[in-house]
Amino acid sequence: MRIYRRNHTREAFAAHRSAALKIAAAVFGGLWLLHFALVDSLPSFAATLVVEPSADGVQRATIMMESYSYVPDHLVLQVGSPVELILENKSWLVPHNFILQDADAGLRLEADIAGGDRATLRFTPTRSGTGTFFCDKKLLFFKSHRHRGMEGQIDIQ
Ligand SMILES: [Cu+2]
Question: Strand ranges (DSSP E) for the chain?
């Protein structure tokens, strides 16, 4: 009898725990989807940054990576001076990348930045031209970040 009761209690506890886990999963799942709905509805602002070389001749610029945009998303650079481009991932958890493969301007840049991290790209534009940069990250079956608007432009003058 005692053994039966003990087993019974254990089963009841397991059933309760299983129900609690299901509720927690449903709540988290709901929040997760709500997060995507909210982020998708946020407006993204286009911003242009005309980069002036510093006293040492280096063109320094910082681009913030957010979900799902680059701020600024338009850089104007000059031919012939070295560039130091800092990429700061402002997302808490979401990894982003920066891909620019532009034959026209002779640039091939690529960087992967984990959530909350930063990276510096150093290059010297040797030709004028226009290139598009974007983030091709995507989560499971969701749209890629580029499809969500994570794209920008570099003009080299
Ligand atoms: Cu991204």
Answer: 48-50, 59-66, 69-71, 74-77, 83-89, 96-102, 107-113, 118-123, 129-134, 151-156
The full set of domain ranges for the chain reads 1-41, 48-156
Which CATH code fits 48-156?
Answer: 2.60.40.420
Q: What is the 96 CA–ligand 1 centroid distance (Å)?
A: 4
117 CA from centroid of ligand 1 (Å): 13
From the CA of 55, how far away is ligand 1's center (Å)?
Answer: 33
CA of 12 from ligand 1 middle (Å) equals 45
pLDDT tens, per residue, the chain with 157 residues: 555 555 566 676 667 777 777 767 776 566 665 655 555 545 456 799 999 999 999 999 999 999 999 999 999 999 999 999 999 999 989 999 999 988 777 889 999 999 999 999 999 999 999 999 999 999 999 999 999 999 999 999 9
Q: How close is the Cα of 66 to the center of ligand 1, in Å?
A: 7
Distance CA 100, CA 154 (A): 9
| Centre of ligand 1 from the C-alpha of residue 4, in Å | 56
